[in-house]
Amino acid sequence: MLFEKTYGIDLGSSSVKVYSMIRNKSYIEKNMIAAKGRKIIAVGNEAYEMFEKAPSNISVSSPMAFGMIANLELQEIVLYSMMRKIDKILGIGSVMYFAVPLDMTAIEKRAYYQVANGHWLRKNRVYMVEAPIADAIAMGVDLENNEGSMVVNIGAQSTNFSIITGGRIIISKKIPIGGRQMNEAVCSEVRKRYNLQIGTRTGKRLKLVMGRLADQHKQARKVVGIDSVSGLPREEVISAYVVNAGIMNCVNEIGAQMKVFLERIPPQIAYHIAKEGIFLTGGSTRIPHIDTYLASYTGYSFNLSDLYETSSVTGLEKIIHDRELRKWAQPITQRKL
Questions:
Q1: HSE-CB for 84 with a 13 A CA cutoff
Q2: Pfam families this protein is in (predicted)?
């Protein structure tokens, strides 16, 4: 159809990324929703502003958990709200390309179909693209003539390792460590060293401002938290070394799991990966020198993507515009589920 609306959608644990073909632009918004009982108060970035600040009778949460849809109804509300901001008149019969995790069950596939064909969004055609394939396309990996490539995506709540060869994923693994666990590790280190309790949003700010896995500088930031002993608010100057100690706990675990994963790979493919380098992407790769740190830990070189959390939706954008790449998108109908 000439005026058919086409979207590329990446539902992440931290944020929702949507590419609109008509506007030729990508949009990103926090995957958060604030509710008081059954009443929705705020969605997206507005809900994130209330995170860790809302009273006890208002719950602020993400409909996604570890890269999978945890609450179908709330996820549809978040997606619908975001798409209404992009296009005031959505209409019906749009085409939606979703970047999805690997090895989904029929129930999990049904959840993605229902998000696009539920109460608010209706009669949409749904295509699913495996997230590592979308990442690889975004980073320029040749999927057709591929002797072996490894894609690592460090997301908000999980890290995915995938080996692509001959145009398909042969081995993959997901571990429950990501940016949110790094934030919590920073909060834990601050609590141990300073007897100060801080929120995960403050932990995230410290991670982004002072987190450096190599070439560490003597930096410090003043934060406000709750004293663990007295229970009163207190200011404290936090050293960068404490922040980096928390981050390194998680990155070391990712590196250890990656070494175990690489040992499972056939030698011919491992040789090609060592020659080409491991492709690294995801929102949590914004930490400076994370590629250098992982390279020294694993012994492999890394190709760090500058797309970060938008790599999957950029891959979907390329698939939407290039008919040759659409063979990587699998149509999903209700009859198939």
A1: 10
A2: MreB_Mbl (PF06723)
Please give the full DSSP string across 77-102, using - where no structure is assigned: HHHHHHHHHH-S---S--EEEEEE-S
Q: Using a cut of 0.85, tell me whether the model's pTM lies above it.
A: yes
* 219 vs 233 pLDDT, higher one: 233
Could you tell me if 47 and 189 lie in one domain?
no
The count of other CB atoms within 10 Å of the CB of residue 310 is 20
Q: In what order do the strands lie in the sheet with 159-165?
A: 168-175, 159-165, 149-154, 278-281, 302-304
Do 204 and 164 sit in the same domain of this protein? no
Our CA angle for 18, 72, 93, nearest 5°, is 50
Q: Name the CA dihedral angle for 113, 63, 132, 258, rounded to a multiple of 10 degrees.
A: -150
Report which residue type is found at 298: T
- In angstroms, the CA 29 to CA 78 distance is 9
Q: Residue for token digits 């500088």? A: 217
- The answer as to whether 162 is a domain residue is yes
Cα gap 52→54, rounded to integer Å: 6
The per-residue pLDDT for 298 is 93
Q: How many domains does one find in the chain?
A: 3
For the cut 50, the answer to whether the pLDDT of residue 41 exceeds it is yes
> Do 149 and 166 sit in the same domain of this protein?
yes
Domain identity same for 112 and 190 = no
Place of tokens 């970035």: 45
- The Cα 154–Cα 149 span in angstroms is 17
Q: Which two tokens stand for residue 2?
A: 């000439």
Distances in whole angstroms, Cα of residue 236 to Cα of each of 191, 226, 244: 11, 10, 17
Cα of first residue to Cα of last residue in the chain, in angstroms, is: 26
pLDDT digits (tens, 9 = 90+) for 187-217: 999 999 999 999 999 999 999 999 888 877 7
Q: What is the pLDDT of residue 121?
A: 84
